[in-house]
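A quick aside before the break. I want you to see a complete sequence-to-structure record at least once, exactly as it would be stored in a machine-readable document. Don't worry about memorizing anything.
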Amino acid sequence: MKILYYDCFAGISGDMNLGAMLDLGVDQKYLLKELSSLPIDSYKIKVYKDKRGGITGTKVDVIVPPQKKTSSQHTLNKQTFGGISRMIKQSDLSANVKKISLDIFTRLAQVEGKIHGHKIDDVHFHEIGAIDSIVDIIGAAICLDYLKVDKVISSPIQVGSGIINCSHGTLPVPAPATAEILQGIPIKTGLVPFEATTPTGAAIIASTATSFSERIAFTPQKIGYGLGSKDSPIPNVLRLFLGEISDNAAKADDPKTGEALIIECNIDDMNPELYDALMERLFDASAHDVFLTPIIMKKSRPAVTVSVLCNVSQQKLIEEAFWLHSSTFGLRSYKVAKSMLRREIVKVKTKYGEITVKNGYLNGRIIKSKPEYEDCKRLAKENGVSIQTIYESIRLTERSKK
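That is the input. The structure line, written in tokens, reads:
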């Protein structure tokens, strides 16, 4: 499986992405030929080598003559999403390039429409609709299609800090459109005092990356550097890794599926004090989960359904625990399908002490975390604070690492 990894340690913009793609090995003549099929006003693409903070990479400048920035029949500055969409669909671009381009533009249009209260087809893109951004977005789609990658992964996105001036006025970094696009995606702030990630760059990542991780868990074969226009102590560079990973390794973060067994019975004649001991015995017999459900049985008698989730191979041990430690005379069982997230157990050091935390992964990204209750309970007692305070200390510790 071919993997493309975006290392957005200094952010991402449309021109940085194009530069990194060309630096990675995308054929420049192929890119220009594909772009030439678009019915847009004259422009030039300047591609050259340069340095940012000692890193040599590729810089891409889309040069539009000043007179072309005014409104005309083909100028896309302040074009609507509907017009851009029609242009892409009617072009000679491949079906895959059209799909990727429309996915990126649709995401931008939805965000702009939400922020400014417009219907998606009526959204004017302002800077996003300028010719250079049209080239950046469709160029990104052409490059991705050229590389034929199977999966796109990204690091957390550095967005920068400070304020920016644009057609909407003075805005904080990240700009509202960028922040909206990156919802649900891990970000970092404050590394540089400027806008490190633009709405175009954010849309490219959000529309193409399927997972986000700081780990590079594959074999890199090529590396490309795309240069931005800023000068700062941190190199204004987007780094791309192109590599291979085995299909089995690529699926490591997919939810694991398997077969399990539910064994259960209804009990209406057992001392409630005995349920706790029964649950302990069932867990000792390798039950994955045990739960009690209140029910009403015949003659309106209140009762409890005792349910156990276990491996098929543990059926006899679970049944024996039921026979010896409950009042039931009968059991029923049935097979179920089970899906599980990849889990990782880590130790988190807080000011109250060390706590075990279980992380759940999907597509290379942590989507949920759960502290070990017994650790929290113990530390709360030792420090004379509430358990909620311990939970909050974990959240603050994790946030300080970002």
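Two observations worth writing down. Confidence is low (pLDDT under 50) at residues 68-78. Residues 255 and 341 are 5 Å apart (CA to CA). We'll return to this after the break.
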